[in-house]
Amino acid sequence: GRQQASVEQGRSLLHGPPEAMAVGATDFDNPHLDPAESFSYLRLVSADGHQFYLDRRIAYECDTFRKMVEQENFKEGQLNEIKLPTITGKLLEKVIEYLYYKYKYTDAKTTIPDFPIDDDVVLDLLLVANYLNMY
Questions:
Q1: What whole-number distance in Å separates Cα of residue 66 and Cα of residue 77?
Q2: What is the pLDDT of residue 49?
Q3: In sequence order, which residues have a C-beta less than 8 Å from that of residue 135 and are 6 or more positions away?
């Protein structure tokens, strides 16, 4: 009786109505879609053939990547792949680390830690950031 009712109430509190579940979704155009259905990756390929699979939301922290994928006349949009023939895997990995960092700390209310960059890649990374228009 009563215990069964409280279990049902607890279950509905935990799960809520189906429409409430979809509110946290992160689809770009429609926030009410299931995030699992709209989750998508981009593949970034470096000059030396390293492949990185990146959540599209993270990749879009770089406007250059966003533009390459969203413009229909670019093959990147159809393939969900961006080839970067001038950027080595080592540098591309650092760019991706930065995109995650930017995604995590944009509008953060906490103290934002410094983004670590090794001395041996500073100049190359600056050139790459300039090439990708990352400020």
A1: 9
A2: 96
A3: 129
pLDDT in tens, 117-127: 999 999 999 99
SS3 state at 70: helix
Q: What would the DSSP string read from start to end of the chain?
A: -HHHHHHHHHHHHHH--HHHHGGG---SS-TTS-HHHH--EEEEEETTS-EEEEEHHHHTTSHHHHHHHHSTTSHHHHHTEEEETTS-HHHHHHHHHHHHHHHHHTT-SSPPPPPP--GGGHHHHHHHHHHTT--
Alpha carbons 50 and 96: distance in angstroms, whole number: 13
Residue 19 tokens, joined: 């429409």
